Amino acid sequence: MPRRQIRVTGAAEAPLRAALRALRTELDVPEAFGPQVLAEAERAAREPTLPAYDATDIPLFTIDPPTSTDLDQAMHLSRRPDGYRVRYAIADVAAFVVPGGALDAEAHRRVTTLYFPDGKIPLHPPVLSEGAASLLPDQTSPAVLWTIDLDADGSPTATDVRRALVRSRAKLDYESVQKQLDAGTAEEPLALLKDIGLLREQQEVARGGISLNVPEQEITERDGAYELTYRAPLPADGWNAQISLLTGMAAAELMLAYGTGVLRTLPAAPDGAVGRLRRTARALRIDWPHHVSYAELIRSLDPHLPHHAAFLQECTTLLRGAGYTVFRGGVTPDLTTHAAVAAPYTHCTAPLRRLVDRYASELCLAATAGEEPPEWVLAALDDLPKRMAEGTRRAGTAERECVDIVEAALLKDRVGELFDGTVVDVQEREPTVGTVQLESPAVVARIKSEEGAGGLPLGERLRVRLTQADPGSAKVLFAPA
């Protein structure tokens, strides 16, 4: 599920800041890095372990939100006589982190970067994650360089992984990339993002994979007031994600052939969950014939339409249950696939922000070279799934609670007002309780009918009254008007 992009700028309201501080305390979020960790990071930034192979002649570019500085990936795309070549550089965190050191221990404690409306809690000190280890433009950096050759249909034909020095030439953002692609003004390495992205989307269709284009909630300040909006992903977002998916799938195949690795896995959704989605589709007046598969339906939806956006948000419930599966010694695990990807897959493209990716890179490098993985990788492997599950759970809780807090802060002076909304979810065991999606502002919150008023009308547009908005308790509650 895409992470909601929530941004608060300008002078924030005191209740919002206080509630966010309380949330950090409740989640036991690690704040400042200790002096030993910072000293080790400073030394590593000055003296990283550099590879011998020099690939700085490849004109790589990055695509990220405009304000991002922790840049994990850079790419270069080119044509071959019989297809395409994808070169994808991933930040080489292992070039800076000494196994067993203070920096390594702190990363294992944090597990992931945590995002809050008023800032982020990084996995690694900024001198690395936003400096020496980041693939910033015009900076020579150590990286794990993937070279994946594709045929004319976009299917992989060869994969190579090696350590290399790289140098990004440009930091691009999604909107500017989309404008260049739409106008036909992009140079070939960028123009091929659309060509390869569309081919990879066709490959996804063929194997039954699913990419959810879920609109993201954004909070911005305008004229001294906060504003909530929805942002539907651009096509360029999806094409960029296809390059990351391609790499994660190639990494999984490498590790499975090698016999040792860590996969990102997701079992198929149970029949009951799909049945519930069918009932939600009917309520939202989305036509879902029985002969049409779930994957086909998802690809037919337009996230710009409110009832489609509501259904896509509900579809994210099928992604619950994803985890990490470790295997070694050539013993293939029972579950090797990720149901949404519809193929073996692993996380390996965001090591600045996610602990497990550093290990996946090392395993793929060892597999390519036909060598034993480093001992520090093997020693930590069995503990990774549990550690990642805990870190992912904390990140998910932080995201959900932040959304609730910000919504409450934005609505706290509007209790009693009426709004237009659509009921997008109703609890099966308690039909008077559900979820309402407002048209404006872009709030998704709890709704509860008055006692004796009957069940909520799933999929119906209705007027609702705000009955509670308290950022201190992170609660927003509506009732049918």
Q: How would you portray this structure in words?
A:
This protein is an alpha+beta fold. The chain is 36% helix and 25% strand. The protein is globular, with a radius of gyration of 23 Å. Residues 1-12 have low confidence and may be disordered. It is built from 13 helices and 18 strands. A hairpin with a 2-residue loop joins strand 2 and strand 3.
Portion in helices: 25-40%
Supply the helix-strand structural class.
alpha+beta
Query: How many helices?
Result: 13
Total beta strands: 18
Radius of gyration: 23 Å
> What does the average pLDDT come to?
90
Name the overall outline.
globular
Major beta sheet, specifics?
5 strands, mixed
Strand % is: 15-25%
Are there runs of 5+ residues with pLDDT below 50, and where?
A: 1-12
For the termini, the CA-CA separation is: 32 Å
Strand order of the largest sheet: 1-7-6-3-2
Strand and helix layout:
Elements: H1 14-26, H2 35-46, E1 60-63, E2 73-80, E3 83-91, H3 102-110, E4 114-116, E5 119-121, H4 126-132, E6 140-151, E7 156-172, H5 174-183, H6 188-207, E8 216-222, E9 225-231, H7 235-258, E10 261-265, H8 271-283, H9 294-300, H10 306-315, E11 323-327, E12 337-338, E13 343-344, H11 355-369, H12 375-381, H13 384-411, E14 418-426, E15 433-438, E16 444-448, E17 461-470, E18 475-480
Parallel strand pairs: 1-7, 16-18
Antiparallel strand pairs: 2-3, 3-6, 4-5, 6-7, 8-9, 10-11, 12-13, 14-15, 14-17, 15-16, 17-18
Helix pairs in contact: 1-13, 2-4, 6-7, 7-11
Features:
13 helices, 5-stranded mixed beta sheet, 481 residues, 5-stranded mixed barrel
